[in-house]
Specification:
Layout lengths: L9 H17 L13 H5 L17 H20 L4 H28 L21 E4 L2 E5 L16 E5 L2 E4 L5 H10 L14 E4 L2 E6 L2 E4 L11 H11 L1 E2 L3 H8 L12 E7 L24 E5 L15 E3 L8 E2 L3 E2 L1
Parallel strand pairs: 9-12
Antiparallel strand pairs: 1-4, 2-3, 5-6, 6-7, 8-13, 9-10, 10-11
Helix pairs in contact: 1-3, 1-4
Length: 337
């Protein structure tokens, strides 16, 4: 079995989705409360089962997993027909957003494996033609980061709203394009000491560049945002251009401006900010959502992709990945030094 670090077995991931929903909504986060599926805690608790073991454990059939999923959802529908308390309401929303994130993970998993697109994007995934590059001057300012109490569902790493003092900065009105990144790749082609590589899903044939989108190859569109670039490669590009990545707060400031002022990339965008807790952070009941990753080895991304539902497209939402990851739908924009 070929085990890829960034890919879960699809049937395991589906089973995990159902288990998570049942565990928090119906079992109240308690192992002592029984599951509708035998051995589900051993099989599908992502906090307990190592990634490599997910490929080798004996799992229920897909028919049983589909039945388990249906049973759990029917149980939730019955719950919603009556009155629910605030705690149940929170856990149902958590399960919905958790599934949203895994649906997006299914999409970039299929991209990684070169499969046909598994689900329809929430909008056209074809990026718009990029605007002419312009750097927007942002004045020195106080910015309200994080999320307020009683403002609706949030994730624990958004706790709590606080004021950040930002110096003036100049940020690109749009993301780095394929054409700009191609200049970076080709500038190093004759330098044997360089380790600059083309993005994973690019190829060059007969002097022309192509990009793979799921299972199909297309001519590289030079004016579209570059996608599937790791934080490490984005940082190397910035160094080459004598630019820098924005911090998470700088990118949040841009994304809070009028939409006519800047162009969304339809990608998660890397920032220079390590994923760390805000002052006063406390974990929510799902303690493994943020807490284990506050080790300085992950970077914050802001924004959304075409596979992110609109209910997750909040300015306060903090996505995070390891800096070598490129498999999700990610790009970047730059700031002047």
């Amino acid at each position: 079995v070929l085990i890829l670090e960034v890919v879960n077995p699809p049937h395991w991931e589906f089973g995990h989705l159902t288990w998570f929903h049942e565990f928090w909504v119906h079992r109240k986060g308690q192992v002592s409360n029984s599951s509708l599926l035998d051995n589900s805690d051993y099989l599908f608790n992502s906090s307990e089962i190592a990634h490599s073991d997910r490929w080798t454990i004996e799992m229920p059939s897909i028919e049983r997993l589909l039945q388990y999923n249906l049973e759990v959802f029917q149980k939730t529908l019955e719950l919603l027909e009556g009155g629910i308390d605030a705690e149940t309401d929170y856990f149902i929303q958590l399960s919905i957003f958790h599934q949203d994130m895994h649906n997006e993970a299914f999409a970039y998993m299929w991209q990684t494996l070169g499969y046909k697109a598994p689900l329809q994007a929430f909008e056209s995934s074809a990026p718009e033609k990029s605007l002419a590059l312009n750097y927007i001057e942002m004045p020195k300012q106080s910015f309200r980061a994080g999320s307020d109490r009683n403002g609706g569902f949030i994730f624990d790493n958004e706790k709590w709203a606080h004021t950040v003092e930002l110096n003036d900065f100049a940020i690109a009105n749009r993301a780095v394009t394929n054409g700009e990144y191609l200049e970076f790749v080709e500038s190093n082609k004759n330098d044997s000491s360089s380790n600059v590589q083309a993005p994973q899903y690019w190829k060059k044939e007969g002097g022309d560049w192509y990009q793979r989108y799921f299972d199909e190859w297309y001519p590289l569109a030079l004016d579209e945002p570059v996608c599937h670039v790791s934080y490490l490669d984005a940082k190397q590009y910035c160094d080459w251009r004598q630019l820098r990545l924005p911090t998470e707060h700088e990118l949040s400031v841009l994304m809070s401006q009028d939409v006519n002022q800047w162009q969304a990339s339809k990608l998660w965008e890397w920032t220079s900010s390590p994923f760390m807790p805000f002052s006063g952070f406390s974990p929510d009941p799902y303690i493994d959502y943020s807490n284990p990753w506050f080790d300085g080895n992950y970077q914050v991304l802001k924004g959304w992709s075409a596979y992110t539902p609109k209910r997750l497209r909040r300015n306060a939402f903090r996505n995070f990945y390891a800096p070598h990851r490129y498999d999700h739908f990610c790009g970047f924009r730059t700031c002047l030094l």
